[in-house]
Amino acid sequence: MFNHLKEDVACVFERDPAARGIFSVLTTYAGVHALILHRVSHRLWCLGLRWPASFLATFSRFLTGIEIHPAARIGRRFFIDHGMGVVIGETAEIGDDCTLYHGVTLGGTSWEKGKRHPQLCNNVIIGAGAKVLGPITIGEGGRIGSNAVVNKDVPPGATVVGVPGHVAKRAQTNDEQRRREYARKIGFEAYGASQDLDDPVARSVHSLLDHVHALDLKIEMMRSTMKRHGLEVPGEGIREPELCELDETVSEERQSVGNT
Predict the structure, then answer these.
(1) Euclidean distance between CA atoms 172 and 158, whole angstroms
(2) CA angle 12-15-16, nearest 5°?
(3) What's the CA gap between 99 and 90, in Å, rounded?
(4) Which helix (H) or strand (E) is 107 found in, with range?
């Protein structure tokens, strides 16, 4: 129990630059108070002392503004920042190193008994006001944007935004890695157009890079075939186009799209 407390306090300093000292965290951070009281109430719940556990959880809600059902399972180094209005349901499961901001709800969508609340894998972050509903799984490293409403599984490493929630960014795929390498080769970083969200200009640039890359592959195949047959290969030594100014053009287009 004491080891858990040390980890819970230490993770506050990692994730909140406003933290000023251990005494301050222990005496003024509602998220830490709620977590300490939950660990006690959860122990009572597991021992079959359901009324004392529920009473302690109710007292914790009165004291902190954070409601955590005593049956909810919470991993190590869990951090609730600010915390007011957070609700964590009975069958919710939270992995290690997760972070919740104020107004987050891990709720159910059914009155049926059994598993009805979300499961958060390790290293999940949920933004302020987000609602994660139902017996769904948020994959490891998942990010839920502020005020999003999520009722479907989220793949590992994905970022979800909107109502209803949709994936705005996934963990980097092989295609994205290839685009990044090709963009670097020709002097243009495609991800400069959009770092996180689904941007229409970024999608267009990605499609253009895919098309140019496919054309390059076909040209190289034609050159190799001509060389094998002893034919003169045109275009040898041609300087590649300078696209260093393309990033500025894309930036201007993004601004115009945002203004419209």
Answers:
(1) 9
(2) 75
(3) 18
(4) strand 105-107
Give residue 193's pLDDT band: very low, low, confident or very high (50, 70, 90).
very low
**Residue entry with tokens 């301050």:** 24
**Spatial CA neighbour of 150 closest among 139, 129, 164:** 164
Q: What is the pLDDT of residues 22-42, one digit of tens each?
A: 998 899 999 999 999 999 999
Distance, CA of 228 to CA of 225 (rounded, Å): 5
Per-residue model confidence as pLDDT tens digits over 195-217: 445 555 666 666 777 778 788 88
Cis preceding-peptide flag for 164 (omega within 30 of 0): yes
Same domain for 228 and 160 = no
DSSP character at residue 233: -
Do residues 179 and 155 both lie within one domain? Answer: no
Same domain for 66 and 126? Answer: yes
Enumerate the H helices of the chain as residue ranges: 2-15, 22-28, 30-46, 50-64, 174-185, 200-228, 246-259
Distance (Å, whole) CA 44 – CA 212: 63
